[in-house]
Amino acid sequence: MTEQHEFDMEEMEPEIIYIQDEETDEEIAFEVIMRFEVDSNGKTYVMLLPYDDEDADEVVAFREEEDEDGVLQLSPIEDPEEWAIVEQTFNTLIATEDDSK
Q1: What mean pLDDT is predicted for residues 52-80?
Q2: Torsion-angle region of residue 79: left (phi > 0), alpha (psi -120 to 50) or beta?
């Protein structure tokens, strides 16, 4: 079973994460739209959309991990098998959320 953390965005301020663009060295703001844990690997993933971009429709995904100091880090998902699991879980959660409305 997948654990999903979601929030009623009408009642809460959006959670914003800033990620430094390696090419331009600028910080880009992203809004957290969903966090979930995948039971098969025990890892937590965060799904993001560019913040303040009305035309943004591409979701960005990262794996959340703690470093040796306990600081939360975002890691890219580079393994195709891991990406397939994340994509399938996200799509299932979105479909379930849409069905419940």
Answers
A1: 90
A2: beta
